[in-house]
Amino acid sequence: MADSVRKDEEFSGTRPVEERHRINEANLDAWMRENVEGYAGPLTVLQFKGGQSNPTYRLDTPGRSYVMRRKPFGKLLPSAHAVDREFRVISALGSQGFPVAHAYALCTDEAVIGAAFYIMSMEEGRVFWDPTLPSQPAELRPKIFKSKIETLAKLHMYDPERIGLSDFGKPGNYFARQVDRWTKQYRASETQHIPEVEKLIEWLPKTLPEQKRVSIVHGDYRLDNMIFHPTEPRVIAVLDWELSTLGDPMADFTYLLMQWIMPGLDGVDLKALNIPTMEEAAQIYCNYTGTALPDLNWYFSYNLFRLAGITQGIAGRIRDGTAANAKAIESAKRTVPLAKASWAYAQKAGAV
Question: Taking the model in full, what pTM does it have?
């Protein structure tokens, strides 16, 4: 438990702004006076410790606090770090009463602080990093899980067209696009021959599940990407929308269920902890959305393949000299085990 609390402290909270992330605070203050309703300085700027790819700042004023997300400085890939997409999706969802931070204003003029950014409300609450919830009493754990799962189900029930997001993603089969994307990512970063990956690259596109619905998908829906109410077991804001798009809700849902087969909940005594089993968690989602549970094996194989593509990308950056820290090396080592696990689920789904 002490480790878990330490982890909470390590990733949450703020620190002084790093030299390389400094911004022109006077320009920001002037822009906020013009564009953020109810804003009044003076302004104090801090940086969040969490490791998001878009630098994130806490902006304090005497009256209230705000959060700023900005693009990294310098040259970027065209679609990377699209803060305008994040702003658009949380604006649309917030207007429907979905739990997100309030989106105040977007600035695409890089002259203000050197990069595009947006301002949202600072939601005060709790972030849980350890899915066994050691800091919470046993009777509250199922309620926390229920809120997390029902919040995702609620997201998937919105009609993108009706809330102004009909063009937020590409048409066609979402899994087909994703398998293609992660295959290309893997090939571009390949550092070794992994037989299981070769078999998956051949098998996954031939066995794509039929896409029954299109919804907003978050893309990285997990416990530490949400803020819970300070005292109640209730999600008040879902964070980190940078991978969000339109797609198959089964992608988000099965990614959520992966928690039970990966380090986190895999192998723990769920009954003793009063945490729902994977089947119980799935049932909460299915009851809310009125959908039937598919055979999960294909989806687990896909999710593990995607993670192998991500860790192989890290291995490629180590090879190219653009990532060399201990954490990157540790992540890169996971590619083979992830590929083997993915192929094991593929075989359960009928691959030979």
Answer: 0.89
